[in-house]
Each structure stands twice: as C-alpha cells, then as structure tokens.
Amino acid sequence: MRISQLEGKRVALWGWGREGRAAYGALRARDSGSGIRGPEERGTLPLTLFCTAHEAGQVRALGDRALQVETEASAARLSAFDVVIKSPGISPYRPEALTARESGTLFIGGTALWFAERPEARTVCVTGTKGKSTTTALLAHLLRAGGHRTALCGNIGLPLLELLEGDAELWAIELSSYQTRDVAASGVRPEIAVVTNIFPEHLDWHGSEQSYVEDKLALLTEARPRIAVLNAGDPRLAALRLPDSDVRWFGSADGWHMRGDALHRGDDFVLDTRDVPVPGRHNRGNLCAVLTAVEALGFDGAALAPHAASFRPLPHRLQTLGVRNGITYVNDSISTTPHASLAALDVFRDRRVALLAGGHDRGLDWSGFAEAMKTHAPAAIVTMGQNGPRIHDLLAPVARAAGFALSSADDLAEAVATARDALAGEGVVLLSPGAPSFGPYRDYTQRGRHFAELAGFDPGAISGIPGLGIA
C-alpha cells in the first residue's frame, strides 16, 4: 500500500518509538503532495496515534491539529480504523489486534510502506536468528569498498522510512522477524533475500515456535525474492522449496564456505579470516553469506573479500571492552537465545570465563544449553533476570557434576560483582545473557551500556553503529 492510497481511509499509528516517529514523519512529508485532503488542514491526513501516557504529552507538543492522541489501544478502538501502521515491537498476535483484524482492520508496518513507495530500489534484505546485523553491515562495507553508493538501514538502527527520499544505488536492509512479513505485504519482490539461520526466538511476540519460523521465512515464501541466498548448513533452510526464486547456497563445498579459519570459493582458497576483525569463527562465517550476495548482485566477490579486513565490528556483539585488574570484560548484550550464549562461550573456550546468563523470559528451552554445560562449561555461571531462577534450577545438578561455580544475582550489578569475585583476578567476564533485556532495560543497547559502566568503561564510547545511512 502506497501513502497516496491512504486517502479517504481512517488511519492510525500504533507506537511512538523510532519506527513510529519515522512513519509519522513520512506520512506528513508525503501527504501534502499525494492528493490526500483532511478535514482540518488541506494536505494533512487525519491520524490517530496510540502511545503511552508518557509519550502523549510530547506528541501533543508537536501542535499537529490533525493528529489525535490516545493511550489505550483497545480492540474496539483499533477496529474503528481501516489501516493501522504498527511499530515492529508490537505483536500482531495480541488479542486486541486479532479482534480488530477480524473486523477488517489492516495492520501494516513502515517496512511495507517503504517498499511500496520504492519498488525500483535494488534491495538486499537480510534476516536470520543470529548474524543478521553483522552480515548486513559487512555487506554494505564491501559494496562501498567496491565503489557502490549503498544504504545501511532497517532493524540495525535506522528505520527505512527515515530514508524514504534517500538516493542509493543499493540497499542493504536488516529485517527482524517482526518485519519480514511486511515485505510480502508491500507486493514488491526484493532483488535478493539473505537468511543466515533459523533458531527459536521471540516466542512471546510470535506466540509459538512454528509461528516464529513461518513469520521469519515469509521473506522467502511470501515475498518471493528474485534471488534467495541461504545457509546450506541450516536444516530448515535446506528443506525449503522456492520455485519462484533463484537459490544460491553458502556454506556448501561448491560455493563460499569456511575450512577452519580459511575462506574458500569452491576449491579455491581466498583469505585467512583471522585478519577479519569480527570475533568468533561463526561470525566470520557470515562473510560467506555476504560474498554470495555480492556475486548475486553481479560483482566480483573474490576481489572484494580482502576489504573485510577493514570492517569495523558492531557494538554489543562479542565486544571486548578492555581489561580491568586482570579481568577482560566482553559485552555480548545482543545475545537473546541460549544458542547465542553457547556460541559466545565457544569463542573463549581457551580462557577462564564467568558467564552472565538470564533476562526477560520468552519461554525458550534451556535444556540444550544445560546439556552442553556437562562437557563445555565455563569456570562460573551467574544467573539473573526474570528467567534466572529457572536457568539456575536447570543448571544446579549439572554444576555439581561438572564442577563449575553456579551463583544467582538480583540484578546486573550484583551479577558483575559475583562474576568478578569468581574469577579471582584472571579471566573473562562475559555478558552473553541468552535472553532479552526487557524489564530493567529498554533494549540490549541500554543493558550493554550499563554493563560497560559497571565494568569501569565509558558507555558512551561503545554504542555507535558504524556506517549507518547512505555512503
């Protein structure tokens, strides 16, 4: 749906985070020239915004006479609108949304609006449970190194609608599972879709593992990209049949793949990835996905691959903050699944590690993590957060048998102090919680910044994402 097609419809915005503000700005920027006419001001689309009471005062201060602000998005109120432009963090599976949908309300996101407005854009959409941010940023980095004006945007920290008028040759777009269906809803086929892997996550938003997988894979099955770049090592992806897409595999012996730390294109050695400044072999393996996408765009992957050595890694992703009193502090706050915590532990398998685990409880199964701790446990694990007690109870019998120290903490500050004491002056305090930050923190960035502060580092110096925007 294009913005001009909102003419004559009852339209609401739901959510006033950055995505919500971007949608509002795009509507106001476009509606005066789109033929939309509102009852109060010519060229201004009447809007209702559903937001929190705290946000309501800020919004009213904008002085937009065609914007009505409400603080309760009930089923009845949502049902009163033809179109609700929903922020990604708000689940469409909430009862009030389901009821409104049954009554005929259409829910779309800013991603759908952008694609509908920019059908000519050359887009590479990147998703996956883990690795999507690094993959997207690395893709943009290599394309720019090849002389191509490239946008780095999306879920990585810059909403698409903030670049609605942006002039880029290529668009590297990260999409979360909250946004993948929006691409299909736009009716526009992306040029390329990259999927790194699929593991259970965000079950509280999606409602079930099956729903999560279906929503994630909608970028392939419903948006029908012209080219699909998929991980041959992921069983869910390997089982897909995509008759409308040209499928290119990475991680297979005849394509881009890793042999230890060595990057290969088929039988040809290309480079030693130990020179790529991304921690962990599993993260450096994202380069295989990137180079497959580069070639799908028609460029020389082998020629661009060496530029990965100048990539600046992203914050909060196995980010080494530094050393204090013999202890190294590593910020992996973006880790929101047990699988991610296991991958982080593997990176530091040769070091004494105290892991901080736990946070918001999404109902994920930690039994596989507990099983791995029987043979690959760190020196200590400190549990915390809403699901901390559940993780602690699961690990208690394992800790006794495997011999690692297991503690619990009421908050992050106590967890950091307990981990520091457990290491007794030597080792790595690793924040890789395997769970979201919701509750005490707004997001994983705020959690990572607090961790840096507790460890004695400047939180303001660790959070910027290099390369956002168009360059």
Strand order of the largest sheet: 11-10-9-6-8-7-21
Number of strands: 21
Structural class: alpha/beta
**How many domains make up the 3D coordinates?**
3
CATH classification class of the largest domain: Alpha Beta
**Roughly how many Å is the radius of gyration?**
23 Å
- CATH fold category name of the largest domain: UDP-N-acetylmuramoyl-L-alanine:D-glutamate ligase
Provide the helix percentage: 25-40%
Strand content: 15-25%
The whole-number mean of residue pLDDT values reads: 94
Number of helices: 18
Largest sheet: 7 strands, mixed
What does this protein structure show overall?
The chain has 471 residues and is of the alpha/beta class. The protein has three domains: 106 residues, NAD(P)-binding Rossmann-like Domain (Rossmann fold, 3-Layer(aba) Sandwich), CATH 3.40.50.720; 202 residues, Mur-like, catalytic domain (UDP-N-acetylmuramoyl-L-alanine:D-glutamate ligase, 3-Layer(aba) Sandwich); 143 residues, Protein-Tyrosine Phosphatase, Chain A. It is built from 18 helices and 21 strands. The strands form four sheets. Strands 11-10-9-6-8-7-21 form a seven-stranded mixed beta sheet, with helices on both faces. The protein has a six-stranded mixed beta sheet with strand order 15-16-20-17-18-19, with helices on both faces. About 2% of the residues have low confidence.
Topology:
Layout: E1 11-14, H1 18-31, E2 47-50, H2 53-60, E3 67-70, H3 75-78, E4 83-86, H4 95-102, E5 106-108, H5 110-117, E6 123-127, H6 132-145, E7 150-154, E8 170-174, H7 180-186, E9 192-195, H8 203-206, H9 209-221, E10 227-231, H10 235-238, E11 246-250, E12 256-259, E13 262-265, E14 268-272, H11 281-284, H12 286-296, H13 301-304, E15 319-324, E16 327-331, H14 338-347, E17 353-357, H15 367-376, E18 380-383, H16 388-402, E19 405-408, H17 412-423, E20 427-431, H18 444-455, E21 469-470
Parallel strand pairs: 1-2, 1-4, 2-3, 4-5, 6-8, 6-9, 7-8, 9-10, 10-11, 16-20, 17-18, 17-20, 18-19
Antiparallel strand pairs: 7-21, 12-13, 13-14, 15-16
Helix pairs in contact: 5-7, 6-12, 7-9, 14-15, 15-16
